[in-house]
Amino acid sequence: MHLSKQAVLKVEGLRKVFRSGKSDLVLFENLSFEVTQGQMAAIVGESGAGKSTLLHILGALDRASSGDVYCAQSRVNSLSENDAAAFRNRELGFVWQFHYLLPEFTALENAAMPLLLRGDSRQSALTEASSWLREVGLEQRAGHRSGELSGGEQQRVALARALITKPKVLLADEPTGDLDMQTADAVFELVARLHRERGLTSLIATHNFAFARRCDRVLRLQKGRIEEVQPESLPA
User: Fold this and answer.
1) What is the pLDDT of residues 55-114, one digit of tens each?
2) The dihedral of CA 203, 205, 211, 215: what is its sign?
3) How many domains does the chain have?
4) Facing residues of 219 across strands?
5) Is the distance from CB of 224 to CB of 190 less than 8 angstroms?
6) Which of 23, 137, 207, 215 is exposed most, by the fewest CB atoms within 10 A?
7) In 191-227, which positions are buried (b, 16+ CB within 10 angstroms) versus exposed (e)?
């Protein structure tokens, strides 16, 4: 294990190559960085820079071509498929740009899904989900299906679902990208509050420099490399 004392997430020499016809497309290479306990870090970069792919690799949803990822005492890139699924359910919370709620289930059932999938009783899972919907301000919408919820409400359910397993790390990929500015601001404020109150370590990919500036750190991914930049240096 190469994690330093405070590091919850560490990336060493990460490289991702896609085969494109007869040539190789190098998305990024030699990425190395770490995120320490309690930090809220933003990843910025143009579309196509590889932000989503990087988050997928960190979350054991994709594999790097080479390099290592250590997260919460696991060497992520060496996990089997079953171990990776258990790792995601135990250690990580995911929030995507699109909420991926299951349309046939209520907000309460969607929030409870990670606990149900790991075998918790229906009653205990729904009780915990109810508590989380209250946490994100949606207690009154618990019985509504996703199609009956606004975009902001759907993303709040997705956040409750991501955090119900009490993960150490939150990975968020453009979590406000589909929302209007006012709703996006409210969702970001909720993410920031839960990050602080729950002692999370968070990595958020975003195009929104206003939100990135409010994070502890900013990592810029461009031309296959990653560099740390001062949050206040980002354009307004």
Assistant:
1) 888 888 888 888 888 887 778 888 888 888 888 877 888 888 777 888 899 999 999 999
2) positive
3) 1
4) 43, 228
5) no
6) 23
7) bbebbeeeebbbbbbbebbebbbebebbbbbeeeebe
